[in-house]
Structures are given as structure tokens and as C-alpha cells.
Amino acid sequence: MDLLLGVDLGTTACKVTVVASDLTASTVSSSPYPISAPHREWAEQDPRAWGEAVDTTVQRALDSVRAGSRDHVTVSITGQMHSLVLLDADGNPARPAILWADRRATAECSMIENQVPDVAAITGNPPLPAFTLPQLLWVRHHEPDVLSRTSKVLLPKDYLRWRYTGRVVTDWTDASGTGMLDSATREWSTTILSALELDLELLPPVADPIADGGAVERKVSPALQAARTAVGVGDQFAEALAAGLTHAGDMAIILGTSAVVLGVSDHPVPGSFCHAQSDLWLRLDSLHAGGKSLQWLRDLLAPGESLASFTSVARSAPPGSHDLLFLPFLMGERGARGGGAPGAFIGLTTEHGRDDLVRAVLEGVAFELRRLQQKRGIPLPTYVLTLKGGGAQNPLWCQIVSGVFGIPYRTTHRDAAYGAAMTAGVSQGWWPNWQSVPALSDPINESGLADVEILNDRYARYCEVVDALRPDL
Amino acid sequence: MSTVGIDLGTSGVRVVAYNDQGQQIATAAEKTSLKRPREGSVVLDAEAVLRSVESLLAAVAGEAAGQGDQVQAIALSCLGEVILPVDRRGQALSLAPVSMDARGEPAAQAMSERVGAERVQQITGQPLNRMFSVYKIAAGDAAWRPPAAKAYRALSDFVTARWGAAPALDWTLAARTGLFDVERVTWSAEMVAAAAVDAPWLKEVPFSECVPSGTRIGTISGKAAERLGVPSGTALVAGAHDQAASFIGAGGRAGSVSTFALGSSDCLTVETPQRPAGIAGTGFATYPWRPARWLTLAGTAAGGWTLDWYVALTGVGDADALLSESSTEPPPVIVLPYLAGSGTLDNDPSGRGAIIGLTLDLSRAQLTRAFLEAAGYELGSIVAAFMATGVPVGQIRAVGTGASDPITLGIRASAAGVPLRPALGNASARGAALLAGVGIDLFDIDDLPSITIGAQVHPDPNTVDWYTQQRETYRALYRVLKPFNQRFAVRRIPDRKRENLSETTKGHSSYASPDARHDARGR
Question: Model's pTM, two decimal places?
Fold first, then answer.
């Protein structure tokens, strides 16, 4: 039996999905692995803990579908992007991985911008502390002995695949999140590397995500006897593939702890990364405090109450939340996107109740996601918006997002592990190209469009208030 | 011998008896509630208020008599702006709109076009604002017009006239109708004529005679005395607007002592020997309460309301516990407390509240402190405005809910950048009782018994620079947001929601009077 095995290495746990040829899927999750924060704003993990969690979870997943040595399994691993893994010559981690959530490398970002003024034009994004390059420069500056022992710089999923196959390689989706890839040529930028005096030899070769990633040599299950791997994609791309984003103009929103807009473009645009398909790019516009904004308000006003119960009161507030606006900048905004606007409730009266505040948060997150698209001059799709993540389980929030964007919506439970399995499928020729991967069959919902007019009006006010509050006060 | 001060507030009544030394000897209080029959309409039932007052007065008078201190005189401290039409017998013909009732907006706009805001303020001493009584009368239906309406009464003269006094209203409450000429201390013919263009009944239905606070206006009738358990011959004396009564009760003095009342509306009250110059164009209101004694008021429309709203929003039943948990360090977040329009400094009914600078690591203790600081920022701005016009403020005595809590008062003092000293007790009821004593020559207006004063609370020296900067930011934020607030649509409450608009959950539980609060904080 042919099986696709998708592994998603998340920040807190890993998930493994096994897809059979009839596209039935079976998913198993690991127990959480810890994040350590030895200093304020640091976030690190032990790559070996990832390896152990993945081994166990892969084994359980294959067992769950009774896969055996006669099955033909193709593995594709996806995982958290940007995070830095350093391997020494013996193949051991030279230090704990520095995660995307780590904020230590701010000075290095400034240094990059000074020494490579056109870095954003080359890579598609300004350097951010979340990215691999500033983290690598931080290690060079603060832990030079660690860098001197380093033989390879890897990304998390590439570390795991190396662990299974012994093959050092990365793909252009994940590589484009390092801050070192030329987004147009999909090769490491020698301009950036030479300006910063970094050795190209430290970096793995860049390949097409559907290229062969090598045979599995680490036989954690009998079913992996003849298994092969695909190079794979970064986790946001696996999410995008699972959401069916394979044509220019497709758009999905992940309403998770942070909220992320994924949009496909047929040319490199600011804020974009390389799509799995060689002639497409994927924009990632993220708002740190997405679902986190709701949790935050719940913790302030009703600690201990379930989020679902707390959020349900928003149903009794009307569209527009009685003219109350929420600016969801509770964590600042990535890069220059926020322009310094503060988190805020604007327009309060004594007649506003908790229902209005909760609804204002749901609307505020949606407003900001639309504003991010507008700022980039991105035309919105007209046919459907795919919503994913925990927030997509809340029909009211889906309707609000749909109303704010003025587009019908659909939701899907397909996740990054499923997207990874799809990558394995394309690599094995199950489908000739990304566009041939079976589309989502989830129903399209137009219920949010009834509120388009009032939400458009409030959105215009929201943008004006954000702009007005941006100057230093 | 005792005198009684009756404090009529937005949501409660308090009756307090004082002996001839000005010491409290008996008190009783009861909650009353506002009604919101339709959008923009906020009213109280004057007849119900009267019943409540009579019941409480009977209890207090009995207790005072039991201590050998028979009641000799009564005066009222009363919330301003309330007005109602009465019939020949002085009985209410309509529910009485209170300050935040919005029905007066069209008439106020017409007055602005006809007379101009500057002229209105010059005559009446009050800024042009829909809250004043005249604009509500102009919106009145048949009950407010002849032949039904025989007179217009504020709550104070409504009550005293029913007890047998000649219809008389003190200057301070007369000023809060928006029709009183504060220089000539009489009803303004010019204002009446201007308002009567659209509402001719204003020329036909009379108001009460205007007298200084502390003027004896009559004697309680035999029937009323019997009903209330007070001696026949008990004097009825003109009291004052609650902010004025609070000032008098807390020992305010021109140039040396002002009062900061923490009520539904936080209000700084400052006395001057003449009408202060240089406040035209602000929302500051000024009126005389006696010859050569002028009071100027400035505050926030929703001081205590904003705090009550926040307390209700958190769902924490014990408001005192919530407030006492305020963080000890200033948070970076700023609250604009204009949840019912701006402060009087800006006289902007379209003003709205905001919470700015929210972050994920903001704690509830920090947010609570930010709500307390907001009252301080506004006070600091008002004090600065007084200083800019050359009006000395002197020592500021805090009265009302929360004034006796050194922690929350300290937060307000630090945010304001001025020291505050708590005056303990029911300042507004006390002020009314002292005026009652003045009316029967028990007390000398220039030598009133003093109130108990608590320890002065100073701004924290470690936060002076921080709060100086925050006050500037506070003002800047208001200016930035003003154009947006003005463009917001009028708040529309669906019927379903209004039915559920409970006084305690929607932040209207406050008592407008500076003291005797029956609100969520329960002090």
C-alpha cells in the first residue's frame, strides 16, 4: 500500500498525518516539548527533543494505520520556519536551537540593514529578529566558539530529515524565511553573504520541495523499510498547500494565537516568500495578537472562564460593536507594518457592555488583517476566503472576517501535517503538479456578507484612527 | 436643636441631621433609580423621590428628637439640571429628565445659532449644553405646556413647595436651568425670549422666585409637619446645587480651599469673590451662591460612572476589593474617561472614552490603576486651566466616594500632580444642613462649623516626571481622537438591549451627588 506520511514539527508539539491512496487521513500528536527562556525575550529548544518526539509519533502514526514493511511510505517533514539549528562536525547540535519567537537579535537586524541596504528587495522582507540570519549573526558575535565548531546551519525540518536520511539539503520555501535567499533566483544571495562575511559552505544546498530528500536510514518503524523522503516545505507553506492555495490570487487566513493572511502571487512582492511552485510566491502577513487578543481580554475581564463561553457573548452585539473600535496591537507589530500605533479600545461609552468589547476584538483583528492587504496594494480574491485555525471554529468570527473582506468563506480542518503529506504525494507523482491536488470540498458560506456595508464603514474609520495614532504622542 | 440636610442625587436620597455644633447625629439613605423609557431619555420619578425623602426624613427626625435635638430647619442639596412641569397643587405632570437626557439637543443647537454660545455663557454663566433644563422644556409635550403646566420646578423647589414653602429656588440651582442671569441674579428675559421662539410656553409657565442659598423660604405646613414628624414651624431654607453644597459642607473658602467631589461626575469647585474672568469658551460653569461669593465648577461628565462601568465590566462584585488591588506602579496605559462626553474643560458632548496603550502583559491591577489615574489627569488639566486664568485654587479637599481611601486618593493625586486632602463625612448633605442653620441664624455664614479633615495625600515624588509626561499625552490623545468621536453615529441601543440595561451592569449605578453614594463601590 502506498502511504504518504506528513510530519509537522510545531513549536510546542509535533503532529504526524498518514494519508492513504484514497485520501483518508489519520493523525497522531506528540506530547509537548519544552521551550526554555534562559533570558528575557529568549526562546530556545533542544533539537534532540524534537527528534525523539518525532520518532515516537511517527511510529505511533504508522502503527495506528497498521502499516508494515510491505508498504511503500513517502515521508515529508514540515516544521517551524526561521529557527536556527547549528550542527557540529559530528552531527550534534552545537547549541540549543534559537526559535522564531526569540527576540534577542534586534541589533543584528540593524546591522544587516546598514551593511545590506537592499536586503528587503533581495529577500522580500526586512530583517527581523525572528529570522535565521540575525540569529546566526548573534551567535557569531556572542558565542564565536560555537560558530567555529559549526559545520552546517540548518532549519528545523531539515535537521529532522538529515537525521532520517543523512542528507543535508533545504528547500526554497523554508530558505526564503532565513533572510539570506534571493527571492527571485531562489538561490542563496551571495550579495548578502559576502557583505556580512558569511561562508556559503555553512548553508545547505537549496532544492525544489518536491525533489527527492533521500532514503530513510533511521528505521523507527518496520513500515519505513523502503521509505523515501521529499525535501519538504516550511510550515506556513504546508498550511497554504493544505488550504488549497495553489493559484495566484488564492488567499487563506489562519486564525490562531496569531492571525496570518496567506496570499499567493505570481511575482515577488514585499512581504512574500517563495511558494512551493517555482513561479509562485506566498505572502505572509501576520498579526501577533490574533486569537491571543481574545485570550487577553478574557484573562482581564473573566479569568477562568472558557474562551468559547467568553466569546459567545459577542453574538448579542451588533455589527460595528456600537461604534467601538479595537486596535489589536497588543504585541507591537512585526517590522514596520504597525507604524507604532498602540493597542487600544476607541469610542467607549457607558452603554458599551462586555458583548461589544468582545465583538470589537473580533472585528479589530479582521480590520487589521484587511488593512495589511490594503497597505500592500493586494487585490482581494472575489470567490472564496479559506479560514483555518482555532478561531475558524467560531462561526461568528468567520462571518466577521468574511464581512470585513467582503468575500464568502469556507473552513477546512486540513493542517500543515496534511500539507506535508500532499508534498510527499506530489513528489511521488500522485499528482502531476500542485494544481492537480484534490481541492477542498468544504461548503462555501455567504452568511457574513450581509454585514459588508456597516463593516466597510467601520473599517474606514479603523484605518483613520490607526493612522492618527501613529505619530509619537 | 438640629438642622437637616437632604441630599437628592441621581440614584439615591440621603437625609442627615446635625446638631448645633455641626456634628452628625442621625442619617438614613435609600436608593432610587433612573428610568430609560426610550433612546436618549433618562428620567426620574419626582413623586417617588418625594415619597422616599419623606420616609427617610420621618426616620431621621424621630431619631434626632429622641436624642433631644428637635429638627428646626431643613434645606436640600440637589442634583442640577433636573426639571419638571407641575400642576396647580405642585404635583408632577411628567417624569423629570436628568442631566444626561439627550432630548435637549435640537433646542441647544437652535440656541447656538440664535444667540451664540458665547453670549449664552456670558448671561447664564453656564456653557451652552443640551443638559440644561431650558432645552428639555423646549422639547416638552402637552404636559409641559399650558393649560396643563402651571409651573416649572427643579427637584428642590418641587419638594419644599409641597411642604408649604413659597416656590423659591436658590441661585445655584436656578443657574443649572440655563435661563438664569448670574450677574443680575434673576431669570434672564433675553434667554427666555430666545428659547420661546420655538417653545412659546416658556413665556407662559413661570419658574420659582430666585434667592441666595441659606435664605429662609418658608415654614413647613401643619399637615406636612405631622406627616414628617417634625415640629410645626420648622423652617424651610433654600439649599444649593449639590456641588455647591458639597463645597460649603467641606469648608471651602475663596483663595484657600477648593473641593474635588468624586461622584458620578468628578467636579472641582473653586470660590472667588467676583465672577472669574477668562473662562469664556471653556465648559467651566460659574454661579453666585451668595452676594460676592461665586463658585466655578469644572469636571468630567463621567468620573464615577466610568469607574462604575469598569467595575461592572470586570464582573467583580466587590468594587472596593478591585480598586484596592490597583498596581503600585504607574502602568503605561492611559484611559480617557469620557464615557458620557468630554470633561467640562472641553465641553464636548461627542467626546468618547478610550483605553490606549494596551499590551498583552497588562494586568487587571494596572488597568484598574489607569481608570483611577484618569480622574487625576482630568483634575490636573482643570487645575492648570484655573491657574492659567489666574484663579487661585488653594488646598483641594476631596469629598465623596473614595475620598477617604488613601491609596486610591494617592493615585489620583499623583496623576493630577496636586496634593489632595480628604474631607470626611457627607459633605453635600452637611452643606445643606449648614445652610438650613444659616437660614435660622443658628450659624454665621462666615464662621460655619468645620468638617473633619483627613491626612493630606501628596503626589508620589518618584512619579512626578512620569505623570507630567502622561498628562501631556492624555491631552494630546483627546485632541487626536476628537474628530473621530464627532463623526461617530449617535449610539443606538436595540430595544432588546435596553431592556437588559441594568443599572448595575451598565455603569449607571452612581449617585450624582458627591457623597451618600449607593453605587457599586458601596462606600
Answer: 0.83
